[in-house]
Each structure stands twice: as C-alpha cells, then as structure tokens.
Amino acid sequence: MIRFFERYEAETSQFFDEVISKEGSPRPHYDKMLHRFSQFSVDDIKARREIVNIFFRNQGITFTVYGENEGVERLFPFDLIPRVVPAHEWQTIEKGLMQRITALNAFLHDIYHGQKILKERIIPAELILGSQHFRREFIGVNPPLGIYIHVTGSDIIRDGKGNYMVLEDNLRTPSGVSYMLQNRQAMKRAFPVLFDKYKIRPIENYPQELLRTLQEISPVSRREPNVVLLTPGIYNSAYFEHSFLARQMGIELTEGKDLVVNNNKVYTRTTRGLEQVDVIYRRVDDAYLDPLVFRPDSKLGVAGLVNAYRKGNVTLANAIGCGVADDKVIYSFVPKIIKYYLGEDPILENVPTWLASNPSDLKYILANLGSLVVKAANESGGYGMLIGPESTIEQQENFAEMIVANPRNYIAQPTISLSRHPSFFNDTELWGCHIDLRPYVLYGKTVTIVPGGLTRVALKRGSLVVNSSQGGGSKDTWVVDE
C-alpha cells in the first residue's frame, strides 16, 4: 500500500501549503482527511476515480474548449482530494465578501445616478466613461430594490503568508456554480465514510436560494413571479450549467428566439400561448441582449428587451451595465470604493495593481514585464494574459506593443505565489498544485453566501492558471465546523 502523503512534498518555503504547515505537520482541520487517505491503496483511489467519472458522464458534466481539433466537449477535470476550510477562516471570507458586494452595488448605483465618486475624483472619470462595459443608456434607470449585482463570483487567493485576498470580481455572468454542486454529489458517492467524519456545511440549497433571490427582485408583486433563464444556446461553453440550474430551479430554459416583446412587456412562447416573464436570469452578455440597442447582428437576444427593462416591466439579473465594476482597471479602486461608500477598511485586501494608463505605472510595467502578470481589462478565462516568469522575450515584446497602443486596457500585478494543495496525478502521485476559490454571493432582499464555493486547481504542474480552458480543474470545497 502506498501512503500517498508520506511522499508529498509541500515546499512550504516557497508557497503557502493548505494542508501542511511550515513546521511540516498537518494542519488540524486536515487530520481526519489525511488519516483516511493513508488507508487507501492505488487501486482504492482508481476505483473512486471511476465512481466519480461515471457520475460525471451520466450527468453530462462537461465544458467546452474552443479551437481544439479533437472536439469541443470534455469531461470536467476533477481532483479527488477536497479542500477543507475551517469555520473561523470562512467567517473572514464571508464578512469580506458581504462588505465588498455592498460597496460595489453602491458604486454602481452612484455611477448610473449622481456620479458623486467621479465628481470628487476618487476615481478618474475617464476610466469609468472609457470602460467598454459602462452603459450610458442606463443612467437614471432604477432596478428593483436598487440592486445591480444579484449573482457574484469573486475569485479569492492566498498569498505566501496564507492571507486571503481578492484577485478579481465577476459581476456579469459568473459561471462554475453547477460544478460546485456536482462536485459535492460526486464526493459523497466516492467517499461516504470521510463525510461522516466531518461536520460539513451544506451547499445543496443553492438553486433554491438563487430562485428565491430572483423572485425577490421581480418588478411586480406576484405570489410566484415567472422567472426564466436566458442562455446563448448549446454551443456556449457553460451550457451544461445553464440547463442544470434551470432544471434545479424548476424554471424555463430559454433562448432569444423563445422570447418576444409586446407593448414593452416580455413574453415566453409556450404550448399554452404567450406567458409574461417577470425576471430573466440572463447568461448572455450585454452586447448581445437586444439587437435594437446593442449589436444589430446578435441572434442571441430579444428585440425590444431593453425598452421593457427601462420601463420596469422585467428585471434582468445581473443588471445591464454592471460589468463596469468588474473591469480589471476598476478593480484596483475597490479598496477606495469600500472606504468611500462604507467608511471602512477592506476586510479582504486586493492584490497590488499597476495601471498602464498611469504614466509612472506604465514605465514600471514595461521595464518589468518578465516578472509581472499582465492582464487585459475585460478578458476572462485565462485569455489576454501574460505571465512574465513563464513568457518568452518575443511574447513580452508583443505585449509591450499592445500595452503602449492601448494603455487603458491593461493592468499588471506581481506574480503571486498562489497557495498550493495536494492533488492527484494519474491516481498514483500527489503534486502540490496552485488553487483559488470562487465563492458565490446572492443579493436580493438580503445577502446570501453559500458556504464554500468552487475551488479551481491548476492541474498542470507548476502552472498558475486555474481556468478549465487552460488546463485547470476543480475540487470539492468543505467549510467545516470546528
């Protein structure tokens, strides 16, 4: 029998290891998990891997990789060793996220109304007005309850000292929650005994909490507001998630062709005729929502939808224009945003960030491309990014040209030594792989945060990129009562 963790190299001198302390001893909240895994042979692990794979295949749990010759559908990569977060650490994350979401929502209300934060030069107005996600058409529009960001997935990392920090905010159409839910079901099937040894906080009620949040923001008072999910369709990389969430909430999964606007009200076509829609959980980007207002070539949206929204006859979650708050340039101002609207210091710090639009920052960025991580302001999924220490001179020169040509579109950050967590390779070896955490925040009449989230893991050895499209995978995340 192989005792996997006896051969695991934590490398705690370089990285914060989630499982092993700098002294080389297991962290207390991992004791039971380590003991259980020490009892497994290679065959035991392979058998449990097969249980998980069968479950994922039967559930159709896939994601799409574009541009690959072998096809676009893949089984979502999953690591068998769960991440364990003790309750006292989760309490800090939870408080920090509630603070952050409250401040960002106040910021969105302000920039689409009085714009006080711009007038007082807390944030340079040109950075907001020049953001591709700032929608001038929605100045003065009042969403129900004054809430713009109903579903958020902020990405959290730990630095070399183990401090939790926010890497970025995803406020438009954050994805991944279906994998969080299915990971939990897969682990229960593969490791039932291990579940009995921990007091793990449940996450299974997320779809019901999401539906409750969506119903709370209905523009009309009905006992059961009509909520639908709007998807771009089967070729979207997150289509599995769209169909899964609609099924779990018991609502209609719709595409643009299924909806029609009449007299500034939105209806869905059904076998019973047209039925009015009150709330749309949209997984379609702003630019494709309404060909009469945004891209005229869009086949994904609904003609007239924006007028219905402006008239207050339908609610969109998340609100149009909220993407300005997850622009990576605006991210650097979130500590100031928290201080301005709440009068508080941030509970969760930002990663230090340089703005290429600032001449002194630009000079520093260009002189240090080999050691920095450079990101395009509005890209996601690991695209539009240069990881300096892993880049070639040619790549750095190409990025330098793009930065100089459009400095507003780029930021740079130090290469953070993301915390590491043991992960299986070929079910026989354990590697320390870099991870982050995407908790999901729901904002209706109250703020709800599901305990845990999606732990994403860079399954390529040494890689810092956790996105599934770039070779990443995920783990189940356990918030445990101590």
Describe what you observe in this structure.
The strands form eight sheets. The protein has a four-stranded parallel beta sheet with strand order 8-7-12-13, with helices on one face. A four-stranded antiparallel beta sheet has the order 15-18-16-17, with helices on one face. A four-stranded antiparallel beta sheet has the order 19-20-23-24. Among the domains are: 220-313, Rossmann fold, CATH 3.40.50; 352-414, Dna Ligase, domain 1. It has helices spanning 31-37, 42-59, 87-111, 116-119, 125-129, 177-190, 192-196, 206-216, 239-249, 305-310, 328-331, 334-342, 359-367, 393-405; strands at residues 62-64, 73-75, 83-86, 151-153, 155-158, 164-168, 227-230, 252-254, 259-262, 265-270, 273-276, 279-282, 315-317, 349-350, 354-355, 372-376, 385-387, 410-414, 420-425, 429-438, 440-443, 447-449, 454-458, 472-475, 477-480. β19 (420-425) and β20 form a beta hairpin. It is an alpha+beta fold and 482 residues long. α2 crosses α6 and α3 (87-111) crosses α12. The protein is built from 14 helices and 25 strands. The chain is globular and about 70 Å long.
